[in-house]
Amino acid sequence: MAAIEVKNLSREFRASVRHGGMGQAARRLFRPEYRVVRAVEDVSFVIEPGERVAFIGPNGAGKSTTIKVLCGVLHPSAGEVRVAGFVPWRERRALGYTIGTVFGQRSRLWYHLPANDTFDLLARVYSLDNAGYRRRRGELVEAFAIGDLVAKPVRQLSLGERMRCELVASLLHRPGILFLDEPTIGLDVVAKATLRELVHSRSERDGTTVLLTSHDTGDMERVCDRALVIHRGRLMLDQPVGSLRSGFIRRKVVTVVTAEERVDVDLPGVRVVGRAPQRTVLEVETDRTRIETVVQAILDATAVHDITVEDPPLEEIVQAIYERAERDASPGGSP
Amino acid sequence: MRREPAIGGLRYASALVTTNLKASLALRGAFWLQASFMLLNNVTFFVTWLIFFHRFNEVRGWRLDDMLVLFAVVAGGYGLFNVLAGGALQLARAIGDGDLDPILVQPRPPLLQIVASRSTASGWGDLATGVIFLSLATRSHLAAAPLGLAAIVASAVVFTASAVLLQSLAFWLGRIEVVARQMLEFQITFGLYPSSLFGGALRVVLYTAIPAGFVGYLPAEFVRTASLPALAALFAGTAFFVALALVVFHRGLRVYESGSRFGGVW
Fold first, then answer.
1. Which of A56, A62, A110, A313 could form a disulfide with A233 if both were Cys (CB 3.0 to 4.6 A apart)?
2. Whole-prediction pTM value?
3. For chain B, what is the domain count?
């Protein structure tokens, strides 16, 4: 049985029209106008047990709406969904025992109490037996290095510390599926790295299926093996994270350190994008000139101290995906 | 579907109430200040009735002891509601801000978690007022004291149901927490006057649209008379408002739209 099955999922919202001046605003008090917003449109995918999947897209793409339907928070407008075999909005209570959730923008921890108090309450929420709960809590507290945090009131924790406690709270009942909605939002670089590593290692260890929404490509790269890209409510792409680069970018960056002041390469699709004494950065369009040809041309031209060939950052790749989606969606765009 | 033994549900409810009370007691200074000021406020308010009854002795059959019972039931009921189910007062805001999300993913009845996850410190002041006034009112006939406590519980249940009912309208109407609170204020205000002052259509309103009758007069009547009809009417009214609140809340959940505002726990 698949962990998550989504078939032709759509979710519409009715939003009131708010444009215009004061007069129109006053008129709408008596004659309100509404428009239908399609947050998610005809989305289908299947996630197998143990997969770690990133659900990425720009703000307003429909990521959070989809994950909230899968958790049973929102009712869909159309489509079929099964999570761990349950229809989320009809069997929310049964589903609750099998999923863990972290909403980056919503805390489950009681603000004025230490995280331990929330953990104790969650043990009752999930009907955990006392000995099993204590063992599991001890194991997670050690793994997430929050031993000195769990006795402090949550209001005294930093955001990064709080998010580690949130993750522990979501894992106490050993959920088979973990939903993470923007789990690194607002975190600094170190806290983000820690959280990503913890999610990845715990899911690998426990065999947990992870569905993570984020607009931070680092979350996808460090945690997930597969990416679903959503744009304007529609699923644009579903493929392994590793193949995103080869699939979408026909460009590499070559940085070369030479004995001479500079090196010039006159080949189609090769241009200089940075230059410093003894250091040249070239951008190569690989569908016009192969990278080996460029490297050979440099070696023929000068003595090379160092050379690196890199893909552009993943963020640029994702940007390229969004831009292609935008083109495809616009009138006259490619089919 | 997984079946939860009843004992698990009780353990959960008890843990929720305990956690809620711990959270409300966490800020000791604010707790004592709010609770004691509310008690002082209530006593000051009642002084007006003391002066009034000193001058007129009775109002359409209501004497000072009757007013003591009425005040005890309304203040005690409102206090108990605030202490154990104060989350109901935050429901409209939570619906508007999308703060129900973390509650809806848990395998427990969401309404129980919502109402029982906030306790208002001032509620302890109201509850203390209720207990003190009830003790004064029943000082010469102690047998009425348990009836008084039952009346306070019934009043608290109706207050909770009314708050859930009004605040759940936010599922359809948006940010109505101010209106919902004002309606509850109406309920308290009308509930604190002798029922004999109101008649005709207003009396109907006070048992339906603004159910002040079920948080004040009827439970107070039950304490004063210990009559079965009063008990039956109180039970029926309470059950009706609880059922209505549950239906409206669960209908509302179907159209819940969540939200993306940064939010915290209850």
1. A62
2. 0.81
3. 1
